[in-house]
Amino acid sequence: MFETSDPKQPFFVTNKVVLFPNDIRILIKLYQPLVGATAIALYLTLVEDFNADAILSDAKGIYSLQEQLDCSLKDLFKALHKLEAVGLIKTVLIKNEIMGQVITFRLLRVPTSSEFFSTPLLASLLKEKVGVTTFHNLSHTFARENKKKENQVNGNKSGRDVSASFIDVFRLPGQEAISPSLDVQEAANENQTHSVAKASVNEHDSIDWNFMKQQFAIYQIPADEIDKKREQIRGIMQTYGLSEQEFVDEALPCLHGSYELDMRLIEHTIAENYRLDGTRKRVKQEIHNDKEKKTPANIEDLNSKQQEIYQAAMSKSPSEFLYKLKKEKGGFVYASENQILNNLHNQYGLPSDLINVLVYTCLSFKPGLSSSLAYSIANDWLQHGVATASQALQYVAKRRGNIGGHKQKRYYTNKRVEKGTDWSKKKSKVDKNVSSAQLKNFFKNLEDKNGMK
After folding, report:
1. pLDDT of residue 78
2. How far apart are the first and last CA of the chain?
3. Which of 383, 405, 427 is the last residue of a domain?
């Protein structure tokens, strides 16, 4: 994989690819979701940049591609690498005495839709990108179109081929038919061209699969099981940065006499044990360094409640301490809580007294010991140099004091209060000038308007 920060880096397109309308459709519908619009635009631009009369000295700078695509150099190479990965472009770096280093692009033809869906890596990535529903719709659409290109005839496979052969129709001199003349041979050589290869996924892999197969064969895991789950193995190795031997070592505890790899169990085990030895050593070293850097907390500075907790934390094991606190609260200890204590002590290397204060702190927030809360508090303590039970008690008290010391300001907006009408202070107005005839006409009109007759 090549990348440069020099926009003047020369490039040269070495071959021509003829694109038909169906090729463009496959590029947009099937390849664009994988590589992005910039990569498709780059492929089409390189197709148009081919010049049959050009020589290497005519090579242009990569900046000309930037101008046409209107993108940064970083985005340009990111798009190029995607095209290389799916096999639409082969990039070769050559050295020329005059031009220096030149990037040459060999374009490959767009595969048919049937070839695309027959490539598991491409089809799997497309499903990941567009979702199951859209993936099935695309597959059905292209499959239906391909079937329309040929009419199925009953009995076609069992029929007899009665087509005329070349010799049946045409006649050549005997010697010419057996051995072509020199003129024919020269014409054949003169018209020899390199056919454009079909694009195929670049599966260049740095993983030594043969070594891994040999290691698993010792435990009676067949080689085809490794091939079948190659993509899952590669994904786990890339996520956790594991070598072949490290992956085998991590997977061994998950083999229970079966001839198959339980990938879900292996992934779960690696997630729990990832860099466990290094983490445990690092945590112990940090706690040791924090103890040396900081002046030990004076127990007399703790209040009576804190001293009581401290004494219990120093004298009891984490399980006993947890049971004591739960009993005082009227609760009970469940298995997962003891598992958390075991992980904190054996996997991460926290001392028992610090774990006990951690348990006390967690139970002051929740009725049960939660792994997410326990690990979050433990990380906070380590990041702030808390290494002993006394330091933890003082740190917790300081944090709570800071939180309690901030008075929350309440902001009130001027509210408009709607005032009601005091009808007791209102007096009715009587117009004494209205006659009985006018009043009668008023009610008559009111009845006529509301249809009350």
Report:
1. 93
2. 95
3. 405
